[in-house]
Amino acid sequence: MDRFQYFLDYLNNEPFIIQLIWVVTFILFITVIVLIIYLKVLRTYLRDKGRIVDKYSKRYELLLITYLYAEEDKFGVNSEQELIIKKLKKGILFKFKRQVIIATLLKLRNEISGELADSIQNLYNKTKLKKYALLKLNNRNWDMVVTGIRELRLFNIKEAHDDVVKHTNHPKKEVRKEVQLYLINLFHFEGLKFLNELKTPLSEWDQIQLLEELQKFDNQELPDISNWLKSENFYVVIFAIKLAKIYNQFDMKEQLLGLLNHSNEKVRTELIPVLSYLHVVESKEILKKNFNKSSEDEQFLFFKLLEELADKNDETFIEQQLVHSNFEIRLSALKLLKYLNIDKFEELEISSNDTELGILVKHLKNS
Hints:
Number of strands: 0
Order of helices and strands: HHHHHHHHHHHHHHHHHHHH
Distance between the termini: 94 Å
Number of helices: 20
Strand content: under 5%
Radius of gyration: 34 Å
Largest sheet: none
Helix content: over 70%
Shape: flat
């Protein structure tokens, strides 16, 4: 007690800054002690929870395996299976156990196939788990909505379509992504109809994922993409352009040509390589007409297109671009001129007053 009083007297006689340092030090010390205790309690809790999860996982896995390998009688499920269904329904009433049951069902579903996988699907329906997944779709927390849609997708619940599609334009991109995966996984190309209503962005990564999913499905007929090419959402237009390329939609030529005057530059830069890929030669005249008011990216992409589609009619235009400010475009123009008119190309080395141009001509001549 005397020591403590001595410390207080000492502190009272020190400058304010020293007192402040002591107070801050004391607060930090207490904070560290509290955090250490909290971490120890948390680690103990997680360890105990892990043991409980493992215990119930093994219990429910055994029940589910017994259910799957039990022989059904002529009326459907036998008495043993009925008893297992009752036990599962009882466990489902508790959120923690329900989560364990769902996780165990998914684990088994990923490990087996054929009739056993169908049995898991039927068991999911019989235990009314679908009801709880649908309830998650109305949850205020977006992560719960994601969990609900993912569960419906993994258990192939097609009848939830109308409830899921309501979230097409959800403010959270994670929810929108899960909606899109649900629609594509379960309804394949028909699932793309969500694009008709999409008002929110469709990121480059999301587009890549959707295209990868679509390419898993064989012998599917791509829906009419013309409405998507006219969408007010330029993300949808870009995605439709990619579909036109991947699925060789040459019959969409007129709609694609119309997009060369689209107000969004990203749309135009995505479009030009696709027109080249589809060999839409009619695009050249439009691109020439728009060339001077186009961005350098568009101009460069146009020259890439010309490298595939150029003919004698393009020679004059190409010559005009030999003095373009962009080095890559000048180089491309020289290559094209060499391809279209070798004599005129070789004359440039002699007649040109542009030292750099002469060097480029000489380099290309020897390459």
